[in-house]
Every structure is written in C-alpha cells, then in structure tokens.
Design a protein that fits this description.
heterodimer; A: alpha+beta; 5-stranded mixed β-sheet; B: alpha+beta; Rossmann fold; OB fold (Dihydrolipoamide Acetyltransferase, E2P); 6-stranded antiparallel β-sheet; 26 helices; 40 strands; about 25% strand
Chain lengths: ~240, ~950
C-alpha cells in the first residue's frame, strides 16, 4: 500500500516529518493531586496522579525511595468497535510497566522515601501512538502534582514505511506492520530513557528513524513547557500575585 | 502550516463500521506553474509559456491514456482525486499516468487538491461519490482559474455532459476531448481518441431506439451486486479466464469454488470476456457438458491449429480436452468436465495488442474516417473494430491497437489505433512484434543506467587485489566452456589434483554484484528486465553491453573478478568441503563445447588443460550417475539451432542442437554449485532466500503421456521422479529415436520451475522435482539472470562480506521480485520460441521440404506430427475442414489410432510418416507452415 504518495503526502495529508496536531490541558480531574489530558490528533489520553502518599500495602514499602505505581487502561469506547477491553490483559500490563519504568527514571524518588505515587492513565480515544501520548500525559500530570522530577520526559513514535521515515504514526500507519519506534526522551539531559521497536530495521536506517522520533520528543517538550508556563501564569493570576 | 480540519469518513470492509480519520488541509501546496507569483515555483512542472493548462476528469484519463502519452498533449494538471479514482479502477492505466507524471520530458503536474485548503470539498448530503469527485475537479479548476488570473487559460476536459454543463455554468471553460483534439488541428491524433461506445452514442442520437434494428449478440452482463450474491450462494464461480492458445473458441476458468476447471465453448458463452479477465461463470446443465465443439463454432471463424515449436513444458503445450468425440456414433461419451458460460466480468484485462488490419477495399471518399477490423497476432484475442483516418497508411503495417469497449450489440470489440510498428513481413518488424507481445523492454539503456558503469577501459585494480575479502586465484588454471561465439561468459572452472589424491574443483562466476549496486538505477533496470532474452538474430541484454561482454565476462587471458565456489572432492566425487570466496581469476582458455570435447577425445593430447578436462569429466559423470540414482529426470528437448546469414540475417540452415559430454560436464558442476549455494544461503537467511522449485506434476498432467505410452504398449511408473526416470530408461523401442521421443513427450507434461522467496513456503515445498534436489537456486549466470544477482548478494551477506541490502527485510517486495522474475523468465522463453518460429517460417518460405515426422497425437480429423529434424510440431489434416465430421475416418481412442472406415489406411501414435512442409498464406498477413502427407 502507498503510505506516502509520490508528491510526499501521507494518507492524512501530513508530510513525513510532520507531527499530528497536539493539544494538552492541565487539571482535568479535580480530585487528583495532578492530572492532564493529552491529545495527539485523534488519540486522546487522560492521566491522573495521586501522591506522594502513604504506602497502601506496607509490604511494598521501600525505605529509601518512593514506590511508583502505574495503571494503564483503555476506555471501552476508545476504539470504534465496541469491544470490552479487559483490564490487565497482556498488552495493557506491558504498557503499564513501560510507563512506570519511564516515569520512575525521571522522578526523584529518593526525595520521597516510604511513600507511594500512583499514576493512572486511560485512553479515551485511540488512533495510534497511545503509548507516547500516555507518557506525555503522565509527565504533565506529575508536574501538575508537583512531584520533583529530573526533567520532563516526553515521548514520540516514528516509523519507516515506503522507504521513508515517518514521524508520529497514526493508527493506519501503525497497523501497516512496518517498524514502529517509540522513544522516551529527557530533553534537557539529552538522554533516551525508553526505546522500543516492533519489526526489524537495518541499523543505519534505524538511527535515522530514532533521531526523527527524538526530534519529535523535543518538539513535544517545547509544547509541554509552554502549556505549563501558561498554567503557572493562570495560577499566578488566580492567586492575585 | 498545519490546518486542522478533521472530518469523518465511513468505510465498509465486510462489515459496516464507522472510521474516523484525520484529514489535514494545507496551504503549502503549490500550483506548479512557473508563471505563478504566489507559489514557490521550484518544483513547478508546467511550461513557463503555457497558454492553456488542461485539467482532465477521471474518465478521460482512463479512456484516453494512449492519447495522453502522445507528446502533443502537455501542460496537464493531474488532480490527486483523479489519480485515486484511476488507481481504484485500473492499475495499469494508473501506472502509465504515474510514469507520465514522473517523466521529466513531459509537463504533467500532480496537484494534491484533496489536501489543499481551498480545493478540498466536503461530501454533501445525498451526493454520490462520483458527483462529489466531479465537483472536486470543478472546484480545483475554478481555483486554478482564479489563482492564475489571466496568465493562462484553464481548460477542463470532460466527456461527461452533465459535468461539462455544470462547469460552464460555474464559469469554467470546459470541452470534450474530441473537440479539444480537433482544435489542435492534428489529424493523426484523432485516431488515438477513443470513441464513446456505440451504445452510448445511440442513446444520445437515436431516441426511438428500436431493438429489432440491431441484433443482440451477447447476453447482458449481470450487475455486480447480483454477481457478488451469486458467488456467495455458490451459483456463480469466480476465476481467471484463460483462452486456449490454439483454439480461441475454447476457454478455461480455474475455479476454486468447485476445485476444477470450467470449460467454456464458443464466443457466445464467453460473452465478451478476454483472456486474463476475472469473470463470473455459471455452470451449464450437465446434459450440455459434452456439447459438440464443431457445433458451437460452426457459424464463426475457422479454427485450426498452427505449426509451432515443440512445447518445453506443460504450460506451453496446447490444451486438449476430450475433443475426440466419436463420429462413429457412440452416445455414452459424456464429458466429465464441467462447462459453463460467463455471466459477468469482474475485472478486465484489456491492454494493447499487436497485429494488422484485415485487408479491405478503400472506401470511396478517402480522407474521411473508415472502419476497419484489426486482427491480433495473438490468436486468443478476437478481431477488434477500429476507426481510422489513415487507412491507406495502415493496411500493410503491423500496428498496436487498444481495446475500449465491447457492447452486446456488436460481434467484435471496438478499439483505437495506438501506433505503427512497421511493414508486415519485414523481419525487424516481426521481431519487434515478438518483443512487444511478450512485454520485453528492448529500449537502449538510459543515461542514468549507463552512468553507473565503471569507466572504460576497465581492468582489475590494485585495490581489488589488496582487498582482504578477495582471494587471488590468478595462478590457477581456470578455463571456461561455452557455446561457440558466446560473449557473455559468466562461468569458468578449474580442477587441480591434490597430493592426497583428491581433487580441488572450483566454479568461478562473474562477480556482477561488484558493479551492480543495490538501489542504483542500473540495479533497478536489471531487476525490471529480469533476464537477458535470446532471439535467433539478436540478444537483448539485462545489463549494458560493456558489463555483459567485457567487464564481467570471464574472457581468456584477462584478469577478472569472480565469486568462486571451491570444493574438495574425493576421486569418487564426494564433496569433502566447500568454501565460497570472492576472487580474482585469469582464465587461460575460453573453449567452446566442441573444442573441449575434441580435446578430451583426442588421446594424443596430454597437456595440463586437457588432463584437467578429463579429470573433471570423470568426476562429472560420477556426480551425474549419482544424481540420476537419486531420481533426477533426464528430459529431452528438441532445441534447434539456426545458421544465420551474416549479411542478410536470414536463416540458412536449421538443425537440432547437439548435446555433448562437455555440455553435460559443465552443467553438472553448475548444478552442484547452485545446490551448494542454496544450502548456504538458506542456512543463514531462512526467511528471505531466493530459491527455485519445481513442483511435482500431478497425475492429471501426466495423463496424455500415459495414454500415449499405453497405446504403444509401454507401462510408465509415475509414482515418483525416480520411478519415472527408471521407466523412461527402460523405454527402448525398436528404433533409436523412440526413447528420445518419449522423453520429449514427458518433458511437456512437466510444470515449469519457478523462483520463490523461502519465507513464503514451507521446506517440503522447496523441492525441485526434475533435479530431485531438496534445494535449488540460480547462482551461476548473474550476467543474464537477475535471480543470480540476488543470490550473489545473499551469499556475500552470508559470508559476512557485505551487508544484506534492506530490500531483503521486506518480504512482500521480495515476493514481488520473484514473481516478476518468473514472469520475465517465461516471457523471455516465449519470445525465443516465437523468434525461432518466425525464422522457421522465413526458412521454409523459400524451401518447401519433404521430411520424416512422428505422429504424437491423434485428432478427430487428422493427427499432430512432430518433425524431429526441425523441432517443430503441427497438424496434418486427413479430411478437409469443409467436410466436417465426414465419416471416412474414425478414431480408436484406446489404441490411439485413426483408421479409414474401409480399413485401407490407419495411423497410430508414434508412427513415422513422410510429410511435405510448405508455407502458405490462407489469410492475408498470416503466413503459416502447412504440413501434408506425401
């Protein structure tokens, strides 16, 4: 199938190096300590963070650092076909783990010993790149909760179809069966904290594709920073400072 | 830059589900006209001086593609909505339009109107898809008009009346293709314009259409919805229609739903289907299954068999069903094979065809248009009606014609003239026809391709010698053995006696991949061509001549780069070790088969080269006998060889190609090299190796052989290739040619070997039946076969010399390469056969000959003979065709005999007869060889 036309347009009209439109909103769940909604095109994800708080299950308590827990789920209405999305299936367990590890790597857990941080992410609408969107939403929610972090971790995916590296795959491109690289990135420290790939790629092409995903992460980081700045300004305004 | 307007799209894929896709509209899509001041004109394709810019609608592109390919039509804007529609309707046309758009000499610009913020149109309520697309085209035309202002005229070309009316109402200038071409004042172009189908014309012009006025010849095709539901319910069967190459009134549809082939007799039942169309077929009631052939075609054109070359496999062989119906009156013969009729055509396989016009008197008012009937060279294609304004020019020319439509009121399809090839009967023209018919690209290589060649004169550089991956084998006594006059030598051999008593034998293959790099234009071109094509008088190379004949060719006394397979063999020809290496060799002799044979036979010669040859021959014989023991078949083919006059290129003599021991010796080592390489590459790349397999023939395919054998009292065991090989060995008749004849008959029952990607099949299917080898590939002729180039790359990668090119990661692409190779390979074979047939005809034109022939098949009105001396096969009629079924002769099916009623004469299968061969021309421009009994 032709995923990139000879004129250089993807199926949805983007060029290969363009991301979908992103939108973010802080504070969507009032009860949570921090929350955020993150959209990448038609992919929409909500994240809520509770903590740091007392560890619920004492046996899990860690004496020198905080316990980070993460739960990923997909809303029943998130995809078109109204299938029941069982909780705790293979795929969501794996994504939960991936998100937890990525977030753990940037949270300064040693500052909060004997406490617990819960991250809940739910996919409201799925159109490819849910993993990345979840990480981005979680970052914003953690920041909103005021949890100390090394850096803002952001994530973006990229792929390689029709011999062209493509940034931010949507569902159609994702299900083409080509390589799909998801990168988690700490923009200030210039470090990669997450790297996953489906399918195979020759090493030299892989580097280009990964580099593209990293550029995407940087762009998202800039946007997230803007959103946070905006949010802080609003808080300032409300407090009358 | 991103304009975000998302919209909702519904698609149906089996079940109905709503799908939401984003659709970004942009403002950075440029108009492609260099005169435009607003747009970035760096990618502009239209000419700066264009006075008129054309926008075409989908049907114009679909129908008038031949016209568009004419350079007179230029400055065209292709809208992406049109391209998408064309792609959905006809992939062939789409590829041609795409080629036009990417051709730098033509001014075709693709405008992505669907993604432009000003030209995107949303589907309105109650608007059909077609209407929406038409509106999108009009909106785009309007945008162009206002965007360019008065700088150029924007002209919308559409043949749809409604669309044209709306366009004019919206202030867009619109014309039909006919009126536009007329305004160009180029009468030659008018022939290329496809006329609207006659049914449409009638609808428009004659309102009081009386059906009685014109006879309806064909039944109407069922609408698509009915076909789909019929297929679901199992009353219709879907399949590809294959017209019998030797009898255009008989076709087969291979249907999966009933697991058998459905036979379709007669044009009426075929109902306007062409060869290769995907059709829906309805089975006829069983009592009509054995419908007498002669009845169904009695009122149509004559039907007969041509003299042709001996088929080399089952795929080439004429298909014969049980047509030998008892004229003696046995009524119990009900054919067991289902027959049917076409009720609808699911996908057309129309393309352009080569042939000539049927001679006709000049119409009175010359200069006007004339109707003419076009007769294709391919007998499977019916005559095609065309309109032409240049009848006198075309009458004695070979021309190409494309089919446009076939309505049920006309006996023949209508089409249009595409281009002229040349004079009929001219050898170059006829050769050109052979090439075109087999889709062979004989154009010279493009400058981009030639730019990939290393500079000439080329020689092995010191870098090559210093390269650690390349072993220096220049001191070995390497030689090559090839047919006389061979210029593209791609294999060479050496054989050294080791002190241990073993032999070191090496096969050195030209290192083509050293020059053909993956992804280069040269590589793309070679991959497209797939193989070199050998015609009688010329060779169409896969790689440019400097590579084929010089740089890669392993000529004698020059240093050349090679890829070598080196074995250590025991005197019993057991392989002890195998190694593979890139190398530098220096061949000491380029022998012909005759020379090599002469050296081996001449007992006085004791030079080292001759000793090597003899050693190899001994080893080869042992390998061969072991291979035959395993069950490899020795099949015979009746290859012929022409002696061509160097001046006129006319054939001077034909003779059978003689196979010597030297041929077999070289062949044996090439087989061994291929098998070794196949093992190696499969071990390393089990999912992406390119291998060659030969499927076992089914019992049904061997049926004709068994019947013939049974008639002469021979019992063949076909349970396995080994059993078949042994029973073929036992088949010795009273005359020396008998065994070869049986082998030739066996050969034509076999399927062809095919290339495939190892990931697509499971290991038991890799088997090569003819060679009785579990694995086989092609490694030894990279100069003339692209498969070998791929295998060279795989082997190099498995040795860790080079990286595997990325194409091997992509299995669908590898599969499509393998498919293309099979297609090209088959076409190349067909072309060489056609070329030999052409030259046979030229040869016998001047020399009517009497010769000996063997009966190979019995027909109801004669028999088919095989002429061993010239390797051709053709029918001998006992009864003239006019007196069909004249009861003078009757056929004994069991004994495969045809007897005269009074018992005065009889012919049985494999019998020797004397025949007379002469070229006759019963139909103009179709000379053919006629065989008669003397």
């Amino acid at each position: 199938m032709e995923f990139v036309s000879l004129e250089g347009f993807r199926l949805d009209g983007r060029r290969p190096m363009e991301m979908r439109q992103i939108r973010a909103e802080i504070g969507a769940v009032a009860k949570a300590d921090g929350s955020a909604v993150f959209e990448m095109g038609n992919t929409k994800v909500i994240a809520a963070v509770y903590g740091p708080r007392e560890v619920q299950n004492r046996t899990q308590q860690i004496n020198d650092q905080a316990l980070v827990r993460c739960e990923y789920s997909m809303a029943n209405f998130s995809t078109g076909d109204r299938m029941r999305k069982p909780k705790g299936d293979r795929r969501s367990t794996e994504i939960s783990l991936v998100i937890r590890q990525t977030m753990e790597a940037c949270i300064l857990t040693h500052l909060m010993p004997r406490s617990q941080i819960d991250i809940f992410v739910q996919v409201l609408q799925a159109d490819g790149g849910t993993r990345s969107a979840c990480i981005n939403a979680a970052t914003l929610a953690l920041a909103d909760a005021g949890i100390p972090m090394r850096d803002l971790v952001t994530s973006c995916s990229s792929g390689y179809l029709n011999s062209t590296p493509l940034l931010d795959l949507n569902y159609v491109e994702d299900s083409a069966g080509g390589p799909d690289v998801t990168v988690g990135f700490l923009p200030k420290l210039d470090k990669v904290t997450l790297l996953q790939m489906d399918s195979k790629l020759p090493i030299d092409i892989f580097e280009n594709v990964m580099q593209l995903a990293i550029e995407g992460c940087k762009a998202i980081a800039n946007y997230i920073r803007e959103i946070m700045l905006e949010n802080t300004k609003q808080l300032e305004y409300r407090r009358g400072i | 830059m991103l304009h975000s307007k998302t919209f909702v799209k519904k698609t149906r894929g089996g079940k109905v589900n709503k799908q939401v896709r984003e659709h970004y509209l942009r403002d950075d899509i440029y108009c492609g006209a260099p005169i435009c001041k607003l747009c970035d004109s760096s990618a502009a394709r239209l000419s700066p001086s264009a006075s008129t810019i054309l926008l075409l609608d989908t049907n114009v592109v679909l129908n008038q593609i031949d016209l568009l390919e004419n350079p007179a039509i230029d400055d065209v804007v292709m809208l992406s909505v049109v391209l998408d529609e064309v792609k959905n309707k006809n992939m062939g046309v789409y590829n041609r339009v795409r080629a036009l758009c990417s051709n730098s000499l033509r001014r075709f610009f693709v405008f992505a109107n669907e993604h432009h913020k000003d030209t995107f149109v949303k589907e309105m309520a109650k608007e059909s898809k077609n209407d929406r697309n038409d509106r999108a085209i009009r909106v785009a035309a309007q945008w162009y008009q206002s965007h360019l202002g008065g700088a150029a005229r924007v002209l919308l070309i559409t043949n749809d009346k409604e669309n044209k009316r709306k366009a004019i109402a919206e202030g867009i200038s619109a014309e039909t293709i006919e009126s536009y071409v007329k305004s160009l004042d180029r009468p030659d172009l008018l022939d290329l314009v496809v006329q609207p189908s006659s049914e449409d014309v009638e609808m428009e012009e004659v309102e009081d259409l009386r059906p009685s006025k014109r006879k309806v010849i064909y039944t109407e095709h069922k609408p698509m919805s009915e076909i789909t539901s019929g297929l679901h319910r199992g009353i219709y069967h879907q399949g590809k229609l294959r017209v019998n190459r030797y009898n255009p009134f008989e076709a087969y549809v291979g249907s999966e739903s009933i697991g058998d082939e459905i036979i379709i007799y007669g044009r009426t039942n075929m109902n306007r289907a062409f060869d290769g169309d995907v059709v829906a077929v309805e089975l006829l009631p069983q009592d009509q299954w054995h419908e007498e052939k002669s009845l169904s075609i009695a009122d149509e054109e004559d039907e007969e068999e041509d003299v042709h070359l001996v088929p080399s496999s089952a795929d080439d062989a004429p298909r014969t069903t049980n047509l030998v119906q008892g004229s003696s009156g046995d009524t119990n013969a009900v054919s067991s094979r289902p027959s049917g009729r076409v009720v609808g055509i699911i996908k057309r396989n129309w393309h352009s065809y080569c042939g000539s016009l049927e001679p006709m008197p000049m119409p009175a008012g010359s200069g006007g248009t004339a109707h003419a009937l076009f007769v294709s060279k391919d007998r499977r294609i019916p005559k095609i009606r065309i309109h032409t304004r240049q009848l006198e020019n075309l009458l004695n020319k070979r021309i190409i014609v494309a089919v446009d439509s076939w309505d049920r009121l006309s006996r023949y399809p209508s089409g249009h003239y595409v281009r002229t090839i040349g004079e009929i009967g001219d050898r170059d023209t006829e050769s050109e026809v052979v090439l075109i018919e087999n889709d062979i690209n004989s154009r010279p290589f493009s400058s981009q391709v030639l730019a990939c060649l290393p500079p000439l004169p080329w020689s092995v550089s010191s870098e090559d010698l210093a390269n650690p991956i390349r072993q220096d084998l220049r001191d070995l006594r390497v030689f090559s053995v090839d047919p006389p006059g061979c210029k593209d030598i791609d294999d060479a051999l050496h054989c050294t006696a080791l002190p241990s008593g073993n032999f070191e034998v090496g096969v050195h293959i030209a290192d083509v991949t050293n020059f053909v790099h993956p992804g280069s234009p040269l590589d793309d071109e070679a991959s497209q061509r797939g193989t070199s094509v050998y015609l009688v008088e010329r060779r169409i190379d896969m790689l440019p001549k400097p590579l084929t004949e010089d740089i890669c060719s392993l000529r004698s006394d020059v240093e050349r780069l090679a890829f070598s397979v080196i074995w250590e063999l025991t005197p019993e020809a057991d392989i002890i070790s195998t190694r593979y290496t890139k190398s530098v060799i220096k061949s000491c002799a380029a022998l012909s088969y005759i020379e090599a044979q002469a050296r081996m036979d001449d007992s006085r010669l004791m030079d080292p080269l001759t000793t090597d040859l003899r050693n190899m021959n001994v080893l080869a014989k042992k390998m061969r006998s072991r291979r035959i023991e395993r069950g490899a078949l020795t099949l015979a083919s009746a290859e012929v060889k022409f002696q061509i006059d160097t001046e006129t290129h006319d054939p001077l003599d034909i003779g059978m190609y003689q196979i010597r021991e030297a041929n077999q010796m070289v062949e044996e080592f090439m087989l061994a090299a291929n098998v070794s390489v196949a093992d190696k590459i499969l071990k390393h790349f089990s999912l992406c190796s390119l291998l060659r397999r030969h499927p076992s023939p089914t019992r049904e395919m061997l049926e004709p052989l068994l019947r013939t054998a049974a008639a002469v009292g021979l019992n063949l065991d076909v349970s396995s290739s080994k059993a078949l090989a042994e029973s073929l060995d036992r088949a010795v008749g009273d005359d020396p040619y008998f065994n070869k004849l049986i082998r030739i008959l066996a050969t034509r029952c076999m399927t062809q070997a095919v290339y495939f990607c190892s990931g697509d099949l499971s290991p038991p299917e890799y088997h090569h039946y003819g060679l009785a080898a579990p694995l086989y590939t092609h490694f030894t002729s990279p100069i003339r076969r692209y498969a070998d180039v791929i295998v060279h790359r795989l082997l190099a990668a498995s040795l860790g010399i080079y990286k595997l090119p990325s194409i091997f990661q992509d299995r669908p692409q590898l599969t499509s390469i393998a498919d293309n190779l099979n297609y090209r390979h088959r076409n190349a074979q067909m072309a060489s056969r056609a070329s030999v047939e052409l030259h046979t005809l030229i040869y016998f034109k001047k020399r009517p000959t009497d010769t000996e022939a063997r009966v190979v098949k019995i027909r109801s009105n004669g028999f088919i003979v095989f002429v061993p001396k010239y390797g051709i096969e053709g029918p001998v009629y006992l009864t003239a065709r006019s007196e069909k079924g004249g009861g003078e002769w009757f056929v004994d099916e069991q004994q495969q005999k045809i007897k005269k009623m009074d018992g005065s004469a009889s012919y049985s299968v494999l019998q020797t007869v004397r025949i007379h061969m002469e070229v006759v021309e019963p139909q103009p421009n179709r000379p053919k060889l006629q065989l008669t009994l003397t």
